[in-house]
Design a protein that fits this description.
The protein has about 400 residues and is of the alpha/beta class. It has 16 helices and ten strands. Strands 1-2-3-4-5-6-7-8 form an eight-stranded parallel β-barrel, surrounded by six helices. Helix 5 runs parallel beside helix 6.
Length: about 400
């Protein structure tokens, strides 16, 4: 008996750059900047864009209404408190859905809103019912899920599932969760609710990408991201980081759904808008993301780039950088550079040139231009001089250094 093949993409992205990202310490997006970001995210292929609560300010309401009516291919959502007034205002902006939240941890119940679990359940049922009756897609999230009592989470999620919520939201509000905890909670809740499961991970302890990946593996259907990961404190799961992780699992499926070369473009646009630099080691768009230096690495890389790259930079519209101007360089890398310059040097001469490059780099920092000058100098020498160098090299019978490969 043949079974129908299951779809490869079982998760969706809810990008929150225009909601969570607005909470980044430097963020103060203009309406035009928000429109540009929304259009780029839509072109990239996100499934949803989450917007700030229109009740936050008069300009927030204008911005939400404007973006909700841009005619985007993706859906627009707005993040609201769990009360009827906020939801009515959200509905009036024209968004496709509302993302409701209520703090369920003891910390938030004692020091934020002072409400009981019973109150939260009744209020959630009331507001969800009203939003659904207005044709809205609705998510209900227990804020600070990983510091909430599991029994309380089950009670709340089961109750909202029964009144027809589209998604429950699991929120690691303070970034305290680790992948094993995430997997266990998502798997447990998957047996409790029939609706979809959204996850939101802060990055305070550096686990946001790993937690998002673990959640999807355990059955979560929607993942919140931000461009560059900006947000409160250390932000949340970065869009580029999450895409990188999922690409490593299934490159073809990810390439088919998303316009991957847009990630660096969005990273640099948002970085400029909030007045920060793209980190040197940022996923995909950092200047060292696809750089290679050590000689043994480069020998293998020049034959097959997959030896030291899990991600193909061509798929993301960025360039690979092979650095040969340093003391760790190897002769294979130097030979590749000579070939790029159109120089036909025998291997023995390349090895001698490599020694010269290493000697110069041991004294001070050198540039690629200086490497090129060394190679051109060797190329300009008479052929008999090169032959003498080759015989001298052979007579020494030296073992290659660690980076001479």
């Amino acid at each position: 008996v043949c079974s129908e093949r299951q779809p490869r993409m079982v998760w969706s992205i809810i990008d929150s750059t225009l909601r969570e990202g607005e909470q980044f310490i430097n963020a103060n997006f203009s309406l035009q900047q928000k429109k540009e970001i929304a259009l780029m995210l839509d072109d990239f292929g996100v499934d949803y864009i989450e917007l700030s609560n229109p009740a936050s300010s008069a300009q927030s309401r204008i911005d939400c209404t404007s973006i909700a009516n841009l005619g985007l291919g993706c859906k627009t959502l707005t993040h609201t408190r769990c009360n009827l007034q906020d939801v009515r205002l959200a509905i009036d902006t024209g968004v496709d859905g509302v993302d409701l939240l209520f703090g369920t941890s003891k910390y938030l119940r004692d020091y934020s809103h002072g409400k009981s679990i019973d109150y939260i359940i009744e209020k959630a049922k009331e507001v969800i019912s009203m939003a659904k009756s207005a044709g809205c897609e609705v998510r209900f999230s227990c804020e600070d899920s990983f510091r909430s009592d599991t029994e309380d989470l089950v009670r709340v999620y089961r109750a909202v599932d029964r009144v027809g919520v589209d998604r429950i939201g699991i929120a690691d509000t303070v970034g305290i969760a680790h992948p094993q905890q995430v997997s266990e909670l998502v798997r447990s809740l998957r047996t409790v609710v029939a609706c979809e499961i959204e996850v939101h991970f802060h990055n305070d302890t550096g686990c946001a990408v790993a937690n998002a990946h673990s959640a999807v593996q355990a059955g979560a259907t929607h993942v919140d991201t931000c461009v560059l990961g900006i947000g409160e404190r250390n932000g949340i799961t970065p869009l580029g980081g999450f895409i990188s992780r999922m690409y490593a699992d299934d490159p073809e499926a990810v390439k088919m759904k998303y316009d991957l070369p847009m990630i660096p473009q969005m990273d640099y646009y948002v970085a400029s808008a909030v007045g920060v630099q793209v980190p040197f080691n940022n996923y995909l768009s950092g200047y060292s993301a696809f750089s290679h230096k050590a000689g043994m690495h480069l020998k293998a890389m020049l034959q097959n780039s997959s030896t030291y790259e899990a991600l193909n930079p061509d798929d993301f519209g960025v360039s690979r950088v092979v650095n040969v101007a340093h003391r760790l360089t190897g002769w294979n890398a130097v030979k590749s550079r000579a070939q790029q310059l159109g120089l036909s040097l025998p291997d023995r001469t390349i090895r001698e040139a490599t020694k010269s490059i290493k000697a110069a780099a041991d004294v001070r920092h050198i540039t690629l231009d200086e490497v090129d000058l060394i190679l051109r100098d060797f190329d300009s020498r008479p052929m008999n001089t090169r032959a003498d160098e080759g015989r001298l090299q052979g007579s020494k019978n030296d073992l290659p250094t660690a980076t001479e490969c």
